[in-house]
Structures are given as C-alpha cells and as structure tokens.
Amino acid sequence: MTHPELLGWIDPADVFRHFAQDPYTMFLASGGPPGDRARYSYLCIDPVYVLRWQDGVLTQNGEPIAGHASTALNAWLAPARRLPIMPGLPPFQGGFVGFLGYECAGLFDVMPRAPGQFAGIPDLLFGMFDVVFAWDHATRRLYLCGPGHRAAAARARLADPAPALTPPPRLAWQANVNRATHMARVAETIALIRAGDIYQANITAPFAAPRPPGLDPAALFLRLLDRNPAPFAAYIGCGEGCAVASVSPERFLSVNAGGLIETRPIKGTRPRGATPEADAAEAAQLLASAKDRAENLMIVDLLRNDLARVAEPGSVAVPSLCALESFASVHHLVSAITARLRPGLGPLDMLRVAFPGGSITGAPKIRATEVIATLEAAARGPYCGSAAWIGFDGAMDSNILIRTVTVARDRVIAQAGGGIVADSDPAAEWDELMTKLSPILRALGTPP
Prior knowledge:
With 448 residues, the chain is of the alpha+beta class. A hairpin with a 4-residue loop joins strand 21 and strand 22. 29% of the residues lie in helices and 30% in strands. The N and C termini lie far apart (50 Å). 52% of the residues are buried. Strands 1, 2, 3, 9, 10, 11, 12, 13, 14, 20, 23 and 24 form a 12-stranded antiparallel sheet that branches. Strands 4, 5, 6, 7, 8, 15, 16, 17, 18, 19, 21 and 22 form a 12-stranded antiparallel sheet that branches.
C-alpha cells in the first residue's frame, strides 16, 4: 500500500454518489457532531475479493470454500494481523468491511435459528478493500488510501460528474406483527422472566413494504442519513441491487491496534421533545426510570462477562454507566465497558464470545435467543447483527445494526424492538418500538 494521499475536502455523500452503483460499495458514514465516535467516515470501493455466506455455503468471489464456515472465516481474516498503518491518519486505511447478520450467531455458538430468508441478502458479507476514502471530520481532511494505480483510477472517477440518484419513492409500509400480537409476545416474555427462566429478552417486530420498481438503495440510504444522522451509519452493497442501510447510534465492539476494547450498549429510550422544555422533560424521565436503568445494568453485566473471556485478567472496567446521550429523534441511556485484549487474540475472538450483542438478545444470552426464535418465529436477517471494519493492523470497529433497513430483491424491511424486564408494560413496549422506528418509516413512506 502506498502512502495515503491527502485530497481536497469533499463531502462524504458527494463522493459516495460517484461509486454508489458499484455492486459492493461500502460506506461507513459518521453523522452528527464530530465527537470521538463520529470523527471518521470511510468509503470502500472495488473489493479485491468478497466473502459471502448464504444458504449455508461460504463462497469467495462466488467459489465455494470447503470446511466449516467459522474455520474458513478465521483463515480468511488471518491477514489482518498487525500490519503497520500510517500514524496520525484515520485508523482504518484498508482491510475488511461488511456485515454479519443476526443468524451468524450459529457460526460461533450453538444458537437457534428462526426460519426465513431475504432474497438477495446473505447471512454474512465481507469484502477485502485496498482502496479507501477516509475522512477525518475533526480536522476536515480527506485521504485516499490504496495502491498507486488503483487509487489513481478511483481519483479519476471523481473528475467526472457524479451520477444522479433517483429519489426513493414513498414506501407502502405494513406491519408484519401488529400491536396486539407484539403486546402478547411481550406478556409471554414477562411471564418467563417472572418464572425465573430468563432475566431479560429483546423482542422485536418487523415492518415491510413491497420493493417498488426503480428503487435505488443508495438514494434510500442518503435519505435516511439526512433525516437521522448517527455516528455508526453504514451502507453495505450486497450485489444484485440489494443493500443494508443503517443509521445506527450504537457501537458494538471496537479494539485498537494496542488491544484496548470498548463496547457501548444502549438500553433505555425516550423521544425527543417538540420544545426545549418538553425535550428536557423526556430526558429527565429517562434518567429517572428504574425500569430502563435495570435493562441497562443487566446488559452491562452480560457484556462484562463476555469480554472477560478474551480480556487480560482485571482489565474489564465500566467507565460510564447509564449516561444520557441524545440523537436526532431519541434520547438513550448508554454505558461503556472497556477491557484490554489478551496477547495473541484478535477481532474474530472478540466476535466469537460476544456476537450477537447482548443489548439485542438478553440475559442469559443463549436462553434469551431461544425465546426470541420461538416468539418472533422469523429470521431477523441483517437487523441486530453488526456492520464492521477490520484493519490490516488488527484493529476493528463495529456497530449494532439497529435503525436498519434491508433492501432485498422483492421487499424492503425495517424492524425495531426493546428489552423486556419483569416490570415492562406491553403497551409501553409497543410505544417504545414505534418511537425508534417511526422516524425511519416516515423518512421513506408513511407508518401504518
């Protein structure tokens, strides 16, 4: 890889438009104020190869890979082992980018899988990218990383006008699970909790719309990003005109080249108020909620235990507990758990012990996933999985794929849910689900 080239500043969305129609373009876009978690954005183009797990078969550039998928995945990611990157630049300068859908839990542990497939959407998709546009929003610098001839070809495409993206048509959303059914599932979960079967489970409900002719997934993503800026937004081109479009506010797992791990689970939600006074009241109500705090504390304990399996002894800490964070349409309670990765371990080891994230499963995790599979009775697909980058130096950052729209061949799917604890109220849980999902549905159509 050559020395990254400093370019003149161009807005990330404008560069994305130049490459949006390429089948495997991947855009990790940090929206909102450029704080620590929203400092960098990355556009990854023209992958050297693509790893895809679909229908139980793992392929590389379309060719099947023999052996168990988790073993092959480990071998495939082996090159991401402490290769140096240029200091003082954005931390991702090339490597692997993609997503693991929720059902990828079966790669790492014995977890139940609900039935269902989304046409054109794999369970796992990663590309190996050596051409990356990397933005530092704090310093207003844009870098182009890549081998000389490939970087030059990418730069040349910027000289032409960006192709126009057709604005997304309004989608005709329908609830796959209605209010009464969701409330009944929540009530059943509460009964299991009170019987001592589980402590918490995250129960979700999907909405779907027929995919209209001419829908451009890239334009859909930019509409979502404009209306709901978030620090861990991601667009993952899946080929075949399909994509995963997420405006997630939640970090799943990050680890830097020095081995420092962080995870930031979200539990607890209130809508933004229409006036400053109403907004402050919603935030105060969330901070005072014993129920929301209990949700958060349980997941903090679960993630502390997950990280302890790969961390240096005594290094797991909780520097921030149930802190208020405010986003475009909601307030959240967010905690931070940190640790130091044991020598010799890497990103895949972290994913193996912690995926899927505790904030979207429950506690204890395996039993909670069994409850989810039984009650939801349908695959989640990319939703509640994770989009991630894994750098050549062994660093990684990843999100939880919430606030996510899946653009399949025949339909568009959006989903939301919430953590259920003993004192949850089924009606309030439906209201929280709609608080999270309504801004997404409204951006692209009309909520039913």
